[in-house]
Every structure is written in structure tokens, then in C-alpha cells.
Prior knowledge:
Layout: E1 2-5, H1 11-23, E2 27-32, E3 37-42, H2 50-54, E4 59-63, E5 83-85, E6 88-90, E7 96-101, H3 107-119, E8 124-127, H4 144-156, E9 160-164, H5 171-176, E10 181-184, H6 192-199, E11 204-209, H7 215-227, E12 233-237, H8 249-258, E13 263-266, H9 273-281, E14 286-290, H10 299-309
Amino acid sequence: MIVVMSARASEAEVRDVVSRIEGAGLAAHVSRGIERTVIGAVGEERGMDAASFESMAGVERALRVVGDYRIVSRAAQPQDTRVRMGRAVFGAGGTAWLGGSAQDWSEDALRAVARQVAAAGGKLLYAGGGRSHASPYHYRTLGVSELDRLHDVAGEAGLDAVAELRDVRLLDAHLERQTEALLLPPQSLGNVELLREVGRINKAVILQRDNRLTLDEWLAAAEHVALGGNHQIVLCECGGDGQSVSLDVGGLASLRRRTHLPLIVAAPMAGGVALARAAMITGACGLMLDGAAWSDDEAPAWREWLDGAVE
């Protein structure tokens, strides 16, 4: 069962709900987000009546939610969530995009992309989130020097920085530099400790998925973050294995019915403008554009479409 407290609920009212849950022999898990507090009852729920909680002071609603993802479910929150990253807003009517480079984090590459993003009216510059090589000799992760470079380039272009986080030991570096949002690539969504640490901070996080991850696994990863109290979560569909031209539009439509979290698409990795249009029709609220989208051949098409489709 999930008990959603009102935005004005007092600490005493939260404690009363927790006491009733524990008095019934269940464990109470309290998730304190910026806008609301959600209390989950964990255990055998037979005999517990949702209506009895809704009559308690400070309770907005109570409901039974089936499945391992409760806080992020559409049942727990019918309204779309709105997530802000700097001057960009995703979800609940807000459409936005971010541009950057998944693989090449050199100064020249980042500056070239930053110029294009700023010229197209973008607000966010990202680095990372690309495909991870299986070979131990080709594995790369965005470290402190790359993070500093990204922030320098983004600041010079008047953009906010969004950066990949694979190693929990680098979380403090992101907090010190005030990275606007954290980007967790598909390979990191099975790292529960990383997800839980990201859940304990007040910062937007983008969870990327490719076709090796099921929708249930994707939502479960989001739930790990939300359990810590961080409800500023954006889901990003990469399509295929991160490179192939494919996109499960039906899956995205299903996802929109199952969760209130904002959904965006890594468009070039999922097939370009045509599939980006399809994603927006199914309910996506934004795009991630890799540096490849800013090539001389592709940039005009993207700019034209962004002017009419995305803020």
C-alpha cells in the first residue's frame, strides 16, 4: 500500500501514519520528496483498508499498488511529474531537449557541440551516456578532468551541464561542481548502490534504457532512486542497443500509462527525426541529441523540427 501525504502535512501527521502501519505489523518506508512525502507499507496488507488512511489528517490519498515500483507508478500519482534542469522543464506540459556528446569528451568536440546547441536555442550540454565497450581495454568513464572540461565549456556557452555518472565515488565531484543533472547509462541501472546514493540527493537524474533492459527493470531502477526521496527522475529511451535504428513505440506508449515520470528519447541513437516524431506522439516530452545530429547534413533538419516541436 502507498500513502501519499499532502504537501502541507506536518511531521506529526507523518508519524501518525507510520505508527498505524507499524501497529498493523508492517514496515513503513518513508520517501520524502521536494513536493510530497510518500509512505509505503511493506508486508502482508490483508485487513488494511485504504479508506481508513484517507480519513487521517494530512493524507492526500491511499491506495494499493501491485508491483515492485510503487512511488513512480501512475496509480500512485495520476498527474505527470514536472522535472526542471536549469532553465529547461521536462514533463507535465514542458518539452525540452539537451545536446552533447556521448563518446568524444575532448575540448574541441565539446566546444563544437556547445556552439551548435546554443545556436539552436538549447539550454543543456551533456557528456557521456554512450555505449560501454565490453573489452576491458576500451572501457572509459567520465572522470574529474572530463567533468571540469564539460563545466568550463558549458559555462562559456551559457549552458547548464549534464554529466554521466557511473562511479558512486565521483558523486561528490558532481555535487561540488553543481552539475545540473546526472546521466546514468543503461549499464548502471543494475547498480543498486549507485541508484540509492543518487536517491539521497536533491538533483535531477536521467535513467537511460536500451533494449537489453525490460520496462519493468527500468521502472524498478527508478523506484530505487525514488525510495531515497529524490523524485526528480527522467526516463530516457535509447532504442536498439544504443546504435541500431529501432524504437519500441508501443512500449513507450505502454510506459506512459504505467508511470508519471517524464520520458525523453535519445533520438539519433533511435533513428533520427522520423522516430523522434513518433516518440513525441506517444507522449515523450523531450530529446537527447548526440553530436552526430549536428553534422552538416543532419543539423538543418533537426533545427527546423526543434523550432516547431520542442521549447
